[in-house]
Amino acid sequence: MKGESNLTSFKDFLEFLKLSPNILAAISIVTGTITLIPDYYAKKIYMYNFRNDYGFIISILFLVSTTILIILLFTYIFKYINNVIINRKIQKGKYKYLINADENKLSLIKEFIKDSTHTLTLPMNDGLIIELQHFGIITMAGSTQLVDIEFDNSVYVKYFLQPWVITFINKYDELKDKYMK
User: Fold this and answer.
1) Please, what's the b/e burial string for 66-80 (b: 16 or more CB within 10 A of its CB; e: otherwise)?
2) Cystine design at 65: which of 28, 131, 155, 172 (Cβ 3.0–4.6 Å)?
3) Quick one: CA torsion of 90, 91, 95, 101, rounded to 10 degrees?
4) What is the SS3 assignment for 126?
């Protein structure tokens, strides 16, 4: 019986840890106020006896909820900084890919840019097209579309240039000189 009650209290504690940050903040504020309020005000709001009877439990609840909130705050800050670092690496990778593009990629991307809708019909199984699609430079224009099967048994579908590519090219003068000539 005693081991069963310890297991139940441990499960309750785990459920407490799963509470949302808003509820934890409310618990922390309320228990902190009850714990730290001066005696004069505690007597005014009729919490003096309650605090004296249950002060130890309220203080533990305050410390645990505040600690969890601090840990959540540090986790949020770490994730934010990590996302900023990852986004910078991605931006550098995009720039590096576009600046180092060979003549085949360069001419194909220029063709996309020249088209008013930035859409071209291209062979689906071409290595260059698959590479550009893999790196997110181009995307198939819809999941369902009419396909053209030419005499060479190649499947042709419409692809469009991702909007970020044009924005990226316009952002950097080196890319603008390379792609907008």
Assistant:
1) bebeeeeeeeeeeee
2) 28
3) 30
4) coil
Sign of CA dihedral 44, 47, 51, 57: negative
pLDDT of residue 180: 82
Closest CA to 115 of 181, 160, 176: 160
Is there a contact between 138 and 118 (Cβ–Cβ < 8 Å)? no
Q: Please report, as a single letter, which amino acid is at residue 137.
A: I
Six token digits for residue 110: 């220029």
pTM of the full structure:
0.64
Residue with tokens 């071209």: 120
Of the ranges 4-8, 14-18, 32-36, which one carries the lowest mean pLDDT score?
A: 4-8
Q: What is the CB neighbour count within 10 angstroms for residue 98? A: 21
How confident is the model over 89-142, as pLDDT tens digits?
Answer: 999 999 999 999 999 999 999 999 999 999 998 888 889 999 999 999 999 887
What are phi and psi for residue 158, nearest 5 degrees?
-85, 135
Do residues 112 and 120 lie in contact, with contact meaning Cβ atoms separated by under 8 Å? yes
